Amino acid sequence: MMDLTRFEISLPDLLFYVFSAVSLAGAMLVLVQRNPMSCAVSLVVSVLGLAVLYVLLSAHFIAAAQMIVYAGAIIVLFIFVIMLLNLSSAEIGRFRFSLFKTAGLFAGLIVLLLILPGLRHAPPGDSPDVGRYGDVRTVGEALFGQFVLPFELTSVLILSAMVAGVVLAKRDLTPKRPFSFLDWVLGLFKN
Amino acid sequence: MTSPGIFPVGLTQYLLLSASLFTIGVLTVILRRNLLVIFMGVELMLNAGNLAILSFSRFGAGPSGHVYVLLIMTVAAAEVAVGLAIVIALFRTRKTVNADEATYLRW
Protein backbone atom coordinates (compact mmCIF):
# COMPACT_ATOMS: atom_id res chain seq x y z
CA MET A 1 0.00 0.00 0.00
CA MET A 2 1.47 3.36 -1.01
CA ASP A 3 2.18 5.84 1.73
CA LEU A 4 -0.09 8.72 0.81
CA THR A 5 0.78 10.82 3.83
CA ARG A 6 3.95 12.06 2.20
CA PHE A 7 1.92 13.85 -0.47
CA GLU A 8 0.92 16.65 1.83
CA ILE A 9 0.34 20.19 0.69
CA SER A 10 -0.49 23.10 2.92
CA LEU A 11 -3.63 25.12 2.30
CA PRO A 12 -1.93 28.38 1.25
CA ASP A 13 0.10 26.47 -1.35
CA LEU A 14 -2.99 24.72 -2.64
CA LEU A 15 -4.85 28.02 -2.84
CA PHE A 16 -1.92 29.56 -4.69
CA TYR A 17 -1.91 26.84 -7.35
CA VAL A 18 -5.67 26.81 -7.78
CA PHE A 19 -6.04 30.57 -8.10
CA SER A 20 -2.96 31.03 -10.24
CA ALA A 21 -4.53 28.47 -12.60
CA VAL A 22 -7.74 30.53 -12.51
CA SER A 23 -5.83 33.71 -13.28
CA LEU A 24 -3.86 32.13 -16.12
CA ALA A 25 -7.00 30.58 -17.59
CA GLY A 26 -8.73 33.97 -17.54
CA ALA A 27 -5.75 35.58 -19.24
CA MET A 28 -5.61 32.89 -21.93
CA LEU A 29 -9.32 33.34 -22.56
CA VAL A 30 -8.77 37.09 -23.02
CA LEU A 31 -6.22 36.21 -25.69
CA VAL A 32 -8.19 33.69 -27.71
CA GLN A 33 -11.83 34.67 -27.47
CA ARG A 34 -13.37 36.53 -30.38
CA ASN A 35 -16.19 38.44 -28.75
CA PRO A 36 -14.82 41.45 -26.81
CA MET A 37 -17.54 41.08 -24.18
CA SER A 38 -16.30 37.54 -23.42
CA CYS A 39 -12.78 38.94 -23.19
CA ALA A 40 -13.92 41.53 -20.64
CA VAL A 41 -15.62 38.87 -18.50
CA SER A 42 -12.52 36.67 -18.67
CA LEU A 43 -10.45 39.64 -17.56
CA VAL A 44 -12.74 40.01 -14.53
CA VAL A 45 -12.08 36.36 -13.67
CA SER A 46 -8.36 36.90 -14.03
CA VAL A 47 -8.15 39.98 -11.81
CA LEU A 48 -10.34 38.41 -9.14
CA GLY A 49 -8.02 35.39 -9.08
CA LEU A 50 -5.16 37.84 -8.68
CA ALA A 51 -7.00 39.48 -5.77
CA VAL A 52 -6.99 36.12 -3.96
CA LEU A 53 -3.25 35.85 -4.63
CA TYR A 54 -2.76 39.30 -3.12
CA VAL A 55 -4.46 38.06 0.06
CA LEU A 56 -2.03 35.11 0.08
CA LEU A 57 0.77 37.67 -0.12
CA SER A 58 -0.56 39.38 3.03
CA ALA A 59 -1.64 42.42 1.00
CA HIS A 60 -5.19 42.60 2.26
CA PHE A 61 -5.81 46.27 1.56
CA ILE A 62 -4.45 45.97 -1.97
CA ALA A 63 -6.65 42.92 -2.56
CA ALA A 64 -9.75 44.88 -1.60
CA ALA A 65 -8.58 47.85 -3.67
CA GLN A 66 -7.99 45.54 -6.64
CA MET A 67 -11.50 44.17 -6.42
CA ILE A 68 -13.04 47.63 -6.11
CA VAL A 69 -10.90 49.45 -8.68
CA TYR A 70 -10.25 46.81 -11.33
CA ALA A 71 -13.27 44.55 -11.27
CA GLY A 72 -15.62 47.26 -10.08
CA ALA A 73 -14.58 50.32 -12.06
CA ILE A 74 -12.09 49.69 -14.86
CA ILE A 75 -13.69 46.62 -16.39
CA VAL A 76 -17.17 48.08 -15.90
CA LEU A 77 -15.91 51.02 -17.99
CA PHE A 78 -14.73 48.54 -20.61
CA ILE A 79 -18.13 46.90 -20.70
CA PHE A 80 -19.85 50.28 -20.99
CA VAL A 81 -17.75 51.12 -24.03
CA ILE A 82 -18.22 47.67 -25.61
CA MET A 83 -21.97 47.96 -25.30
CA LEU A 84 -21.93 51.58 -26.47
CA LEU A 85 -20.06 50.73 -29.65
CA ASN A 86 -22.43 47.84 -30.39
CA LEU A 87 -20.14 45.92 -32.72
CA SER A 88 -21.79 43.67 -35.30
CA SER A 89 -20.70 40.08 -35.77
CA ALA A 90 -19.06 41.02 -39.06
CA GLU A 91 -16.76 43.28 -37.05
CA ILE A 92 -15.80 40.51 -34.65
CA GLY A 93 -14.54 38.10 -37.27
CA ARG A 94 -13.16 34.60 -37.12
CA PHE A 95 -9.80 33.31 -36.06
CA ARG A 96 -7.37 32.72 -38.94
CA PHE A 97 -3.81 31.58 -38.69
CA SER A 98 -1.48 33.99 -40.39
CA LEU A 99 2.22 34.58 -40.58
CA PHE A 100 1.90 37.64 -38.38
CA LYS A 101 0.16 35.73 -35.62
CA THR A 102 2.65 32.87 -35.77
CA ALA A 103 5.54 35.32 -35.58
CA GLY A 104 3.80 37.00 -32.65
CA LEU A 105 3.45 33.67 -30.88
CA PHE A 106 7.14 32.93 -31.32
CA ALA A 107 8.04 36.41 -30.10
CA GLY A 108 5.96 35.82 -26.98
CA LEU A 109 7.63 32.48 -26.32
CA ILE A 110 11.06 34.05 -26.74
CA VAL A 111 10.13 36.81 -24.28
CA LEU A 112 9.10 34.16 -21.75
CA LEU A 113 12.28 32.15 -22.29
CA LEU A 114 14.36 35.27 -21.76
CA ILE A 115 12.62 36.01 -18.45
CA LEU A 116 12.78 32.46 -17.06
CA PRO A 117 16.54 32.11 -16.31
CA GLY A 118 16.38 35.21 -14.11
CA LEU A 119 13.89 33.43 -11.87
CA ARG A 120 16.35 30.68 -10.93
CA HIS A 121 18.23 33.04 -8.65
CA ALA A 122 15.18 33.94 -6.59
CA PRO A 123 15.06 32.31 -3.13
CA PRO A 124 12.77 29.32 -3.30
CA GLY A 125 11.22 29.46 0.13
CA ASP A 126 10.14 31.88 2.80
CA SER A 127 12.87 34.26 3.86
CA PRO A 128 13.23 34.79 7.60
CA ASP A 129 12.21 38.45 7.59
CA VAL A 130 8.97 37.92 5.79
CA GLY A 131 6.62 40.85 5.54
CA ARG A 132 3.19 40.85 7.12
CA TYR A 133 2.50 44.52 6.45
CA GLY A 134 -0.66 44.62 4.37
CA ASP A 135 -3.14 46.25 6.66
CA VAL A 136 -4.68 49.64 6.08
CA ARG A 137 -2.70 51.35 8.85
CA THR A 138 0.72 50.46 7.46
CA VAL A 139 -0.22 51.34 3.91
CA GLY A 140 -1.79 54.58 5.08
CA GLU A 141 1.25 55.55 7.11
CA ALA A 142 3.48 54.95 4.10
CA LEU A 143 1.14 56.64 1.63
CA PHE A 144 0.69 59.83 3.65
CA GLY A 145 4.18 59.82 5.09
CA GLN A 146 6.92 58.87 2.72
CA PHE A 147 4.82 58.95 -0.45
CA VAL A 148 2.75 62.08 0.07
CA LEU A 149 4.21 63.81 -3.00
CA PRO A 150 3.24 61.03 -5.48
CA PHE A 151 -0.16 60.93 -3.80
CA GLU A 152 -0.73 64.63 -4.49
CA LEU A 153 0.56 64.22 -8.02
CA THR A 154 -1.97 61.46 -8.69
CA SER A 155 -4.70 63.93 -7.77
CA VAL A 156 -3.42 66.17 -10.57
CA LEU A 157 -3.30 63.13 -12.87
CA ILE A 158 -6.89 62.20 -12.12
CA LEU A 159 -8.03 65.79 -12.69
CA SER A 160 -6.30 65.90 -16.07
CA ALA A 161 -7.81 62.53 -16.99
CA MET A 162 -11.27 63.85 -16.11
CA VAL A 163 -10.78 66.98 -18.22
CA ALA A 164 -9.44 64.89 -21.12
CA GLY A 165 -12.40 62.51 -20.90
CA VAL A 166 -14.93 65.35 -20.94
CA VAL A 167 -13.26 67.14 -23.86
CA LEU A 168 -12.94 63.95 -25.92
CA ALA A 169 -16.56 63.10 -25.33
CA LYS A 170 -17.88 66.43 -26.55
CA ARG A 171 -19.29 66.21 -30.06
CA ASP A 172 -18.91 69.84 -30.90
CA LEU A 173 -16.22 71.99 -29.36
CA THR A 174 -17.82 75.30 -30.41
CA PRO A 175 -20.96 76.33 -28.49
CA LYS A 176 -23.77 78.13 -30.26
CA ARG A 177 -22.67 81.40 -28.70
CA PRO A 178 -19.55 81.89 -26.58
CA PHE A 179 -20.45 81.36 -22.96
CA SER A 180 -17.11 82.16 -21.44
CA PHE A 181 -13.48 82.67 -22.19
CA LEU A 182 -12.91 78.94 -21.91
CA ASP A 183 -15.53 78.22 -24.56
CA TRP A 184 -13.87 80.71 -26.89
CA VAL A 185 -10.50 79.06 -26.31
CA LEU A 186 -11.96 75.62 -27.04
CA GLY A 187 -13.59 76.99 -30.14
CA LEU A 188 -10.18 77.94 -31.48
CA PHE A 189 -9.26 74.25 -31.58
CA LYS A 190 -12.06 73.21 -33.88
CA ASN A 191 -10.86 73.42 -37.45
CA MET B 1 9.31 29.17 8.62
CA THR B 2 9.07 27.15 5.48
CA SER B 3 5.82 25.76 4.18
CA PRO B 4 5.61 21.95 4.30
CA GLY B 5 4.53 19.75 1.44
CA ILE B 6 5.64 18.64 -1.92
CA PHE B 7 5.37 21.92 -3.83
CA PRO B 8 6.28 24.71 -1.45
CA VAL B 9 5.41 28.12 -2.76
CA GLY B 10 8.05 30.79 -2.56
CA LEU B 11 9.09 33.90 -4.41
CA THR B 12 9.97 31.93 -7.56
CA GLN B 13 6.46 30.65 -8.14
CA TYR B 14 4.94 34.10 -7.80
CA LEU B 15 7.47 35.57 -10.23
CA LEU B 16 6.84 32.76 -12.69
CA LEU B 17 3.13 33.51 -12.60
CA SER B 18 3.83 37.22 -13.05
CA ALA B 19 6.06 36.47 -16.06
CA SER B 20 3.40 34.24 -17.62
CA LEU B 21 0.67 36.83 -17.17
CA PHE B 22 2.94 39.50 -18.63
CA THR B 23 3.69 37.31 -21.64
CA ILE B 24 0.00 36.64 -22.24
CA GLY B 25 -0.62 40.40 -22.04
CA VAL B 26 2.12 41.05 -24.59
CA LEU B 27 0.64 38.41 -26.90
CA THR B 28 -2.79 39.98 -26.55
CA VAL B 29 -1.45 43.39 -27.56
CA ILE B 30 0.46 41.93 -30.53
CA LEU B 31 -2.01 39.41 -31.91
CA ARG B 32 -5.41 41.04 -31.52
CA ARG B 33 -6.79 43.70 -33.83
CA ASN B 34 -9.70 44.92 -31.74
CA LEU B 35 -8.58 48.07 -29.91
CA LEU B 36 -10.59 47.24 -26.80
CA VAL B 37 -8.97 43.81 -26.46
CA ILE B 38 -5.54 45.39 -26.98
CA PHE B 39 -6.37 47.66 -24.05
CA MET B 40 -7.28 44.62 -21.95
CA GLY B 41 -3.85 43.19 -22.73
CA VAL B 42 -2.28 46.36 -21.36
CA GLU B 43 -4.31 45.90 -18.16
CA LEU B 44 -3.04 42.30 -17.92
CA MET B 45 0.55 43.55 -18.16
CA LEU B 46 -0.07 46.11 -15.41
CA ASN B 47 -1.57 43.43 -13.18
CA ALA B 48 1.42 41.17 -13.76
CA GLY B 49 3.71 44.01 -12.67
CA ASN B 50 1.55 44.57 -9.57
CA LEU B 51 1.90 40.90 -8.65
CA ALA B 52 5.68 41.04 -9.05
CA ILE B 53 5.98 44.16 -6.87
CA LEU B 54 3.74 42.70 -4.16
CA SER B 55 5.61 39.40 -4.10
CA PHE B 56 8.94 41.19 -3.70
CA SER B 57 7.41 43.34 -0.98
CA ARG B 58 6.17 40.25 0.82
CA PHE B 59 9.51 38.46 0.67
CA GLY B 60 11.49 41.10 2.46
CA ALA B 61 11.56 44.33 0.47
CA GLY B 62 9.46 46.50 2.76
CA PRO B 63 5.96 47.98 2.95
CA SER B 64 6.50 50.61 0.26
CA GLY B 65 5.63 48.07 -2.43
CA HIS B 66 1.98 48.32 -1.44
CA VAL B 67 2.01 52.07 -2.01
CA TYR B 68 3.62 51.59 -5.43
CA VAL B 69 0.89 49.15 -6.36
CA LEU B 70 -1.78 51.63 -5.23
CA LEU B 71 -0.22 54.35 -7.38
CA ILE B 72 0.00 51.99 -10.37
CA MET B 73 -3.70 51.16 -9.97
CA THR B 74 -4.52 54.87 -9.95
CA VAL B 75 -2.50 55.50 -13.09
CA ALA B 76 -4.10 52.48 -14.77
CA ALA B 77 -7.59 53.76 -13.99
CA ALA B 78 -6.83 57.23 -15.37
CA GLU B 79 -5.21 55.69 -18.46
CA VAL B 80 -8.22 53.46 -19.12
CA ALA B 81 -10.58 56.42 -18.85
CA VAL B 82 -8.65 58.54 -21.33
CA GLY B 83 -7.87 55.62 -23.64
CA LEU B 84 -11.50 54.55 -23.89
CA ALA B 85 -12.52 58.15 -24.57
CA ILE B 86 -10.01 58.14 -27.44
CA VAL B 87 -11.43 54.84 -28.72
CA ILE B 88 -14.95 56.29 -28.68
CA ALA B 89 -13.80 59.43 -30.50
CA LEU B 90 -12.02 57.24 -33.06
CA PHE B 91 -15.12 55.13 -33.51
CA ARG B 92 -17.19 58.22 -34.23
CA THR B 93 -15.12 59.09 -37.29
CA ARG B 94 -13.91 55.72 -38.56
CA LYS B 95 -16.94 53.61 -37.50
CA THR B 96 -14.55 50.75 -36.63
CA VAL B 97 -12.36 49.65 -33.73
CA ASN B 98 -10.05 47.64 -35.92
CA ALA B 99 -6.47 48.65 -35.20
CA ASP B 100 -5.51 48.09 -38.83
CA GLU B 101 -7.88 50.86 -39.92
CA ALA B 102 -6.30 53.47 -37.67
CA THR B 103 -2.91 53.68 -39.35
CA TYR B 104 -3.18 57.25 -40.67
CA LEU B 105 -2.68 60.22 -38.40
CA ARG B 106 -5.05 62.41 -40.40
CA TRP B 107 -8.38 61.98 -42.10
Number of helix segments of chain A? Answer: 8
Instruction: State the name of the first-level CATH class of the domain at 10-90 in chain A.
Output: Mainly Alpha
Radius of gyration of chain B from the CA trace? Answer: 18 Å
Provide the CATH topology of the domain at 10-90 in chain A.
Four Helix Bundle (Hemerythrin (Met), subunit A)
Please name the CATH topology of chain B: Helix Hairpins
Find the count of extended strands of chain B (DSSP E, 2+ residues): 0
Largest interface: A-B, 89 and 78 residues
Number of domains of chain B: 1
Percent helix of chain B: over 70%
Shape descriptor of chain A: extended
The fraction of residues in strands of chain A falls at under 5%
How many beta strands in the DSSP annotation of chain A? 0
Protein described:
The complex is a heterodimer of chains A (about 190) and B (about 110). Among the domains of chain A are: about 10-90, NADH-ubiquinone/plastoquinone oxidoreductase chain 6, subunit NuoJ (Four Helix Bundle (Hemerythrin (Met), subunit A), Up-down Bundle); about 145-190. Helix content of chain A is about 70%, strand content about 0%. Chain A is built from eight helices and no strands. Chain B has about 110 residues and is mainly α. Chain B has one domain: Helix Hairpins, CATH 1.10.287. In chain B, about 75% of the residues lie in helices and about 0% in strands. Chain B is built from three helices and no strands. In chain B, α1 packs antiparallel against α2. At the A-B interface, α1, α2, α3, α5 and α6 of A face α1, α2 and α3 of B.
Considering the chains and any ligands shown, give keywords for the structure:
heterodimer; A: 191 residues; mainly alpha; Four Helix Bundle (Hemerythrin (Met), subunit A); extended; B: 107 residues; Helix Hairpins; elongated
Write a short abstract of this structure.
The complex is a heterodimer of chains A (191) and B (107). Chain A is an all-alpha fold.
In terms of topology, how is this protein built?
The complex is a heterodimer of chains A (191) and B (107).
Chain A: H1 11-32, H2 36-56, H3 60-85, H4 89-92, H5 99-115, H6 136-144, H7 148-169, H8 181-188
Helix pairs in contact in A: 1-2, 2-3
Chain B: H1 11-31, H2 35-61, H3 64-94
